[in-house]
Design a protein that fits this description.
Length: 379
């Protein structure tokens, strides 16, 4: 049976070139980068080179990169670390209703510890406005956390405009760029953000590694205590092979960024054309111009669980939204925020997401199979 993976927003396959380059690092360069002997120094050299490479991909200084175990830890360190380190300046946080759970649950934790959080609502396209942020800013606001691009519907927020708004305010500005990194052109100096989260496994790098960009001078309270790694901001021996693999995946991703963006946009058009050919009923959740690899569709009279099972039996991997809620009967919090709890879209929407290893033939085949399944389950 032909198998087609359309769930790259959940995780992406490790690029063969990255795997090949990581192997000798894992076998030969096993030293602890904090050790002063030759084995440690070699590991430190690889770590430092990888840090410089990754910093360069977003226009940051190497000292502004904090390596983490992934996007969740980066988001937690940004949100909780900022709040705890700056509680003397206030106790108010502004975020949105459609953030990744790594941000939302961090905010809930802080609410249980005396902080106040404003969750901004979004419109039917999954967007907020800078005016909403401005309306809720107070002298007690210490953090604004707005994701760059949404993982479920692909909506891209006005990050530059919000940063400009916050320029004369003491609040620290964080953006979760996990889905955007590698596809959107990101320069932290042009964006004006103070903190930015990234994860390797979304760009064909290894799982278990990510980073938090923290602008020089930003105060964070560590979430891990132990050694003095990462300039005392994140204790624990660094995952040298994983970080090296991350840097190699990042270079590959950025070198092919424009090509992939064009390719993924064409995949959306191809699927739409085939669905129209089959006279399918569907609507796009979010805007077609959002993140190029995320395509969330509402199919009336279908049900998520039945649809996903039928797709899987046909060899097509897709998702109902965030992978972090896989297996849960809870509706997508993103679609609830966009359309309300009573909307049929909550139980009848599927996310397709594109990435490495796909070609137009795969997309055309998958679209025809999806159309057949939709017709069968709605007959």
């Amino acid at each position: 049976m032909r198998r087609i993976y359309l769930d790259h927003a959940a995780t992406s396959p490790l690029h063969p070139e990255v795997a090949e380059k990581m192997m000798p690092i894992m076998i030969e360069n096993f030293g602890n980068p904090s050790s002063i002997h030759s084995f440690g120094r070699e590991a430190r050299r690889i770590l430092d080179e990888s840090r410089r490479t990754l910093a360069g991909t977003i226009g940051a200084k190497p000292t502004e990169i904090i390596f983490t175990s992934g996007g969740t830890e980066a988001d937690n360190l940004a949100v909780i670390g900022t709040a705890l380190a700056n509680k003397h300046a206030g106790n108010h946080i502004i975020t949105t209703q459609i953030e990744h759970h790594a941000v939302l649950h961090a905010c809930k934790f802080l609410e249980g510890n005396g902080y106040k959080v404003t969750y901004l609502p979004v419109n039917e396209h999954g967007l907020i406005t800078p005016e909403q942020v401005k309306k809720h800013l107070t002298d007690q606001t210490i953090l604004v956390s707005i994701m760059y691009g949404n993982n479920e519907v692909g909506s891209i927020q006005p990050i530059r405009e919000i940063a400009e708004l916050l320029k004369d305010h003491h609040a620290i500005f964080h953006t979760d760029a996990v889905q955007a990194y590698g596809l959107e052109k990101i320069n932290v100096n042009e964006l004006g953000v103070d903190l930015l989260s990234v994860s390797a496994h979304k760009i064909n790098g290894p799982k278990g590694v990510g980073f938090l960009f923290a602008k020089s001078g930003i105060k964070l309270q560590p979430s891990l205590y132990g050694g003095e790694q990462e300039l005392k901001r994140r204790a624990g021996t660094e995952n040298v092979a994983g970080i090296y693999g991350f840097s190699q995946a990042a270079e590959l991703a950025l070198n092919t960024r424009e090509q992939k963006t064009k390719q993924y946009k064409s995949y959306k058009k191809n699927m739409i054309a085939i669905f129209d050919e089959h006279n399918l009923q569907y609507e796009i959740n979010g805007l077609l111009e959002g993140l190029p690899h995320v395509f969330n569709l509402y199919f009336p009279k279908t049900h998520i669980e039945s649809l996903l099972v039928n797709l899987d039996l046909a060899g097509i991997a897709a998702s109902s939204g965030s992978a972090c809620t896989a297996g849960s009967v809870d509706p997508s919090h993103v679609l609830v925020a966009m359309f309300g709890k009573e909307s049929d879209r909550i139980i009848s929407s599927i996310r397709f997401s594109f990435g490495y290893g796909l070609n137009s033939g795969d997309i055309q085949y998958a679209a025809h199979e999806i159309a057949k399944i939709i017709k069968r389950v709605t007959a």
